[in-house]
Amino acid sequence: MKTRYILLFLFLSIGTYSQEKFDIFFDFNVEVPNESSAKNFQNWISENPKAEITKIYGYCDSVDDKSYNKELSTKRINAVIKILKESKLQLSENVELMPFGKDFKLSDNQNENRKVTFFYDNPKAQKISVLTNEEIPTDNDLNAKITKEANSLVSKFKNTKKGDIITIDNIYFHLDSDKIIEKSKPILLGLYNILLQNPNLKIKINGHICCNTDIKDVKLSSKRAQSIYTYLVEKEILFFRVTHEGFGSSKPIYKIPEKNDSEKLANRRVEILIVEK
């Protein structure tokens, strides 16, 4: 199999854009954030002064009728926009605003429904502290691997039970990025369809990387796991059915430094933990 090798050198500073999300919660029938969320929101603003907001979604609980809830969701969005503008945060020129009344998949926990979720791009200079490499198969190899993995997902999930862990192969990301390469999307679509067809299924996405001897460095694996989470939530899988965590290289299958490319590939993986079924 032909592979393409790209090296990352010590302390190379790279500008990256990662799509992330933030939730702000509200009390019943109130259009401004509750005290706890307001504090968290201000902390987020302080830590992300260069973030650009791309989408803002407003939600309500199931009390009252759809039109009233949609109006309240709009007011909540406007309250968040006001805070963002007062804090000099940048809103995208084509920012997407979407208020929901009852026309979304509600959580059984009403507190989780009373919220505004916004998505943002955050340019950051990222430092890579170790020499690593990532190899992505050439097109013919990649297409075959992804087709095989997408077709095998249903059987992987079929006989699982709570606590089981499934390894999903061949989800590839752009080099040193949380952006999933387009050709890996059929695998994510397969995962989405499994969640859609099994409404009681709850999962946790675990991200792992290879090569890094600093086991405390979980940033990249966390963002990659979050990218998969964001894909599913944006396709309207209920957010409380999916959680995510990055483990960096702290849970390798093979000891680091790996001896060969096969060991690196095994360590660099996405796992799905069955939380509830």
UniProtKB/TrEMBL annotation:
SUPFAM superfamilies per the UniProt record, alphabetical: OmpA-like
Protein transport listed as a keyword: no
InterPro entries in the cross-refs: Bact_OuterMem_StrucFunc (IPR050330), OmpA-like (IPR006665), OmpA-like_sf (IPR036737)
Chain ranges of the OmpA-like domain: 160-277
Top-level lineage group: Bacteria
Pfam families, sorted: OmpA
UniProt KW keywords: Membrane
Keyword Membrane: yes
PANTHER family in the record: LIPOPROTEIN YIAD-RELATED (PTHR30329:SF21), STATOR ELEMENT OF FLAGELLAR MOTOR COMPLEX (PTHR30329)
Name this protein carries in UniProt: OmpA family protein
